[in-house]
Amino acid sequence: MNTPIERLQTALETLGLKAVETRLENLLEQASKKEPSYAEFLDELLNCEVEARRTRYLRARLQLAHLPFVKTFEQFDFSFQPSIDERQIRELRSLRFIHEASNVIFLGPPGVGKTHLSVALAEAAIRSGLGAYFITAHDLATDLGRAYREGRLDRRMRIYLAPKVLLIDEVGYLPLDDLGTTIFFQLISARYERGSIILTSNKSYGDWGSIFGDSIIATAILDRLLHHSTTVNIRGESYRLKDRRKAGLVPTREQEGAAAHLSLASDSVSPKPRQKAALGSTPSEAKEVHS
Questions:
Q1: Going by C-beta distance under 8 Å and a sequence separation of 6 or more, which residues neighbour residue 32?
Q2: 83-101 average pLDDT score
């Protein structure tokens, strides 16, 4: 005859309560020591399963989002990038922009933390039960361009219209061709005031004409992106170069400035050979130079 614990394990397996099944003996041992009420024990038992399912759900949503890495705001060194307004970032962390279908655009040179902050926002959205999806601008244009040529653009476009947050990384690192530009504009227009876009770019808005090869389309894209948006302009040094500078592999900013100053000073005092010869003390010296 099966013992009560064996019957419990069989019932838990039948119900699919895997987390409780795994921790059953441990939970029973703890209960024998604490002597909780029936309600308290049942609450702890079911909460164990709820947390396990929430963890599995979150892990699946993070995988579906295709985030390139897991980053948090706590891991970001704001002291290294003083140009960032932390109050602005705290406001974005409230995720109110998502409920308003507003956009967030991170601008700045490579390595300053644009992707880190954008991924942290997307992850926060996922943890709050909101869908997010990550893709680079080049991969986006390539994927939708292929779908267009195969006659399935509308179906493929739904992948990028469905999530509450679409994170488009590296806009401007590679220029888009005519088809890519047209499809990018269609996507931005389709998500306009319907879903949020988080976007990173190493180009200022004035340079977006070079990205899309057409200043008119670039203006139309910006018009829709910026209508409801927050721009975070990061002006600073590459975070990835910080440790290399400390190791002496890359000159510090002070060393670069000193080198530039010496170069300018050298240019200003060094006489040009032809001028020195042409202004020689005797006509023969000048003649010799020009011969």
A1: none
A2: 96
Whole-number mean pLDDT of the chain? 86
DSSP letters spanning 3-70: -HHHHHHHHHHHHT-HHHHHHHHHHHHHHHHH---HHHHHHHHHHHHHHHHHHHHHHHHHHHTT-SS-
Q: Which residues, other chains included, contact 285 with Cβ-Cβ below 8 Å and sequence gap of 6+?
A: 277
Going along the chain from its start, the domains and CATH numbers come out as 4-64 (no CATH), 73-240 (3.40.50.300), 251-290 (no CATH)
What is the rounded distance in angstroms from the CA atom of residue 279 to the CA atom of residue 274?
A: 8
Q: What is the pLDDT of residues 207-251, one digit of tens each?
A: 999 999 999 999 999 999 999 999 999 998 887 666 665 555 556
